[in-house]
Amino acid sequence: MSGAYKKVNRGVTLTLWERLYFPEVIRGVLIAAGHFVPNFVSVTKAYFGGKPSDRKIMTIYYPEEKPVLPEAYRGKPVLVRARDGRGKCVACGLCEVACPPKCISIVGGQREDGTRYPVTYVLNGAVCIFCGFCEEACPEEAIVMSDRYEGLCEYDRKPMVYDKEALLVPEEKLTRRLDYIRRRMYGKWNY
Amino acid sequence: MADLAERIKKMSPDAVASVSSSLGQECVVVHKEAILEFMRRLRDEEGMLFNFMMDLTVVDYLGKRDAGSRFEVVYHLYSLKHNHRVRVKAPVSQADPAIDSVVQVWRGADWFEREAWDMYGITFKGHPNLKRILLYEEFVGHPLRKDYPLRKRQPLLGPEN
Amino acid sequence: MSELRMDLHTEPMILSMGPSHPATHGTVRFLLKLDGEKILNCDTEIGYLHRAFEKHCENGTWTQAFPYTDRLNYNSAVQNNVAYALAAEELLGVAGKMPERAVYVRTIMCELARLADHYTNLGAATLELGALTAFLYFVEARELVWDLIESVCGARLTSNYVRIGGLASDLPEGFADHVKRVFATNREHWRQFDKLLTKNRIFMDRMRDTGAISAEDAIALGFTGPCLRAAGVEYDVRKANPYLVYDRVDFDVPVGTTGDNFDKYLVRMEEINQSLRIVEQLLGKLPKGPININDASVRNPAKEDVKNQIQSMIHHFKNTIEGITVPAGEVYVPTEGSNGEVGFYLVSVGGGKPWKCRVRPPSFALTQGVGEMVKGAFLADIIPTFDMINLIGGECDR
Amino acid sequence: MADIFPGPDIFPAGMLPSLVEMMAKIIFIFTMNMGVFAPLLGWVERKQSALMQDRIGANRADILGFTVFGLLHTLTDAIKLLTKEDFIPEGADRPLHYLAPFIAVVPALIAFAVIPFGGQYDLWGHKTNLVIADLDVGVLFVFAVASISTYGSVIAGWASNNNWSLLGGVRVAAQMLSYEVAMGLALVGIFMVYGTLRLTDIGVAQENFLHWGIFLQPLGFILFITCALAENKRTPFDIPEAESELIAGYFTEYSGLKFAMFWMAEFLEMVTISGVLVALFFGGWQIPFVSGAALARLFGFLGPNLAQVAVMLVHVAVFWAKILLWIFILMLIRWTLPRFRYDQVMKLGWKIILPLSLINILVTGLVMLLVK
What we know:
The structure holds four protein chains of four kinds.
Chain A: E1 5-7, H1 16-19, H2 21-47, E2 77-81, H3 94-98, E3 104-110, E4 116-124, H4 133-137, E5 143-145, E6 161-162, H5 164-167, E7 168-170, H6 175-185
Parallel strand pairs in A: 2-7
Antiparallel strand pairs in A: 2-5, 3-4, 4-6
Chain C: H1 2-7, E1 13-17, E2 29-35, E3 38-45, H2 53-58, H3 66-70, H4 77-92, H5 100-129, H6 132-153, E4 162-163, E5 166-167, H7 175-198, H8 201-207, H9 215-221, H10 226-230, H11 237-240, E6 253-255, H12 261-284, H13 303-308, H14 310-321, E7 329-336, E8 341-348, E9 356-360, H15 362-368, H16 370-374, H17 382-388, H18 393-397
Antiparallel strand pairs in C: 1-2, 2-3, 4-5, 7-8, 8-9
Helix pairs in contact in C: 4-5, 5-6, 5-12, 5-17, 6-7, 7-12
Chain D: H1 15-52, H2 72-83, H3 94-110, E1 120-123, E2 126-129, H4 138-159, H5 163-194, H6 199-205, H7 213-216, H8 218-231, H9 243-246, H10 257-281, H11 292-298, H12 304-336, H13 342-371
Antiparallel strand pairs in D: 1-2
Helix pairs in contact in D: 1-2, 1-10, 1-12, 2-10, 3-4, 3-10, 4-5, 5-8, 5-13, 8-10, 8-13, 10-12, 11-12
């Protein structure tokens, strides 16, 4: 296709008017004021009763307003607890192997009705890099990347090592991510 | 493009040990003694004009090959005018891991060779200041060698007292 | 003046512009010998962000190397993922059999990553020259592009989006008009940077004729990317040996003349425009269809197949546990990263683990040139020169 | 005792009312500058730069839930800077290191003594002149005091035993010297036009709008602003404390209260410069097209004395409003322009501004000859 190497016009010759420092001080100040005035108006409007969306400003008041996260967002990996209360994980150990920094360790066991379940499931949150390989490896869709990013940091590493109870999340809360996986990631029509 | 490898072989038959091309890429294996002269010709010969030394690295074939050619210094060259690439490989033995430095041919090779020394312990004869570049001076050993254990601990550095 | 200097007993001041210094926003150390403000000698010390990338890759399977490639040039992570995937697919021999949509989406994500990198770099350069407002406009433009990348890959920086033989996920619904909205604001921002900086006399005084490098020196030192093109050398991997769908898109490649900081700035500003153009053209012709290769020995099969067919389950387990079996061989595939040529040299001796996974780091060669570009200049000239080569600690120290 | 006290003209008969008036004015200016403006500028700088850059800016510090637009952040700054460890680096020259911030702060405050923030009013038979020290050398006093603050920065740079501060100190010395010369010459035009150095007379002379300094001396105005920015070490002339080059220039080794001093000095200097700017070029306390007498008639219904008080308040308010406007503009410049390089600042100072100010003087002289 067309398109080739194109010389960049560095010969930005300054007219005498621009050679003086003063005019582009004014131009810079006008652009900055151009941002200041509408923002100032919109912030005061939003402050006195207006909706936050009135603000044209980029940043948000974080704790009060939360950002809108896309479906693909990879937050803390969590175990899915089915509607009947039992975890869907069958302790096959694929996520343990697939995890690049090796932060998962499982001890499997068998319930009396013959189904397998993880006796202990430890995921070291301090080592996890949120890459999503465990979710990709799990054949049972038992471990999934939730969109939780708050409250993950602690002052020491011990509480960051999550055991099974800390990881289990009921399925109702994860429907958005589960159906995203089926639709966008590992669905049949993707092959 | 296979003729490029042939032309290189004709250019200096004594230096070239073997020539191959895989997945559409030319590869030339060269004796390490003749490396400097060979590289100078690759850069200056009319049909070659490899004016870019894109990358210099070392591959450690411990266990896969005999000790005589355990290491292999790999140069990736590119010619701007002819828009073709070549991969020059120079096997280096475990007993005497040294090869001539190509800094006189491409000034860019300076840091790449220092990194190769730092990671694999290949000394480049004629290099202006061959010392470690990525690791600290007191580091013991060459980490990227296959016999360097993954979890080896280095001696702690600290004030003498 | 010189005879005055003769009897004036002055000795040069040794100044260490150390690893933690506001201007070395990577982690690099300049040992400067100063005569007053003039730099007599500057030797650069890198390696502060060395994390043994190659040792990690050699001890993980072929797929487990992807999160490590994110952390190379962390400003444009997707480009490293794509470069690694292309090299691995070349080794596997499936490079030609990739589905159309996957190739298109990879090119789109590469260009979005290039946008994010250029915004970051130009922003950091203006910040260090003192124009804080221009910095924040750059950051705002980058924020919008990061939102795009986050909506596709799931993370703004560590994208981990590409897999060998396909992609992790497809584009979200409504991606095209999200891009249209973002690009409209970014073009408006681009006009404001241009007005604020390009004709700004102070900015030009600081950038013009500082950190200049001639074409011969640039080639000898192994420069690639915007810094090489600023010196007037016409070399861009997307044009020299096109990969992905760069040959089905028309875009220009800006080239400078003198190779000083102002040229590098202009080249990057123009490349932003070209990347916007490329993404819009690609979105126009984005084909439907699958995004992963339908070959279970390369790419994990769909989840339903894993549950229902024993063949897919075996492949799924084998690919995850032992890794994809890549036939023995070696390959070097160059791609155009935002800083220069990013090539992966992969060596496989058969089996699930790479034997050697070497990345050609463009900022490694560029940082080598700083010592030369800055000799004889003023102390304050290190700042724009160092900014304009856009050293990324992760990529230079690996 | 008598020889200790200065001459009789400062203390006319009946010292008490003029003493009270003097103290009132000093307290008013001190609280306005040190108490209100310095902390206020801390907030203005944060909030304004935020809104300019599409951000929200300071809004977190709150008392009982009221964040008051982030104004309380200056309170938290004060607490932080007071409680931080006041660290003197090892090997530094202790007394000098301790002394430097004071030399930097005090002149900035003193310089405001000469600037009139109001006209002449007779309140209950007592004529008052709203200026602390109505010196007839006026503007020269401002230059003299401003150059003293240079010593503060240079000593700070030298005494901190740190390469970066040394470079910062050297740069301060070079920049301030070259720009004080240029600043002095830039204002000579104003002195020729108004014929006096006394700021109050210049203020009175600017009663009618067309006699404002900016119309009579446009080139002088541009040169003065450039030199004032350089004196105040603000972008684009902030090379002594260029964050990206010299970490924090001459006050790298300062923390706690002494750092607050340098920070305060910068803000006070900015207020003083806006004060001089407004007093010389923008008619000080004058309101365009509305003279003091007209205002007195407007407030006539309040009775003569109260009318004068009302006029005084209006004039003072107008003066401070103009200063705020100019601080806003200086802040805008601060955030948008990149920084010069060291030699470019020198070249600009000696090769462009100095000759231009000499030409300005020549042209003003010629014009005044023609007009006469």
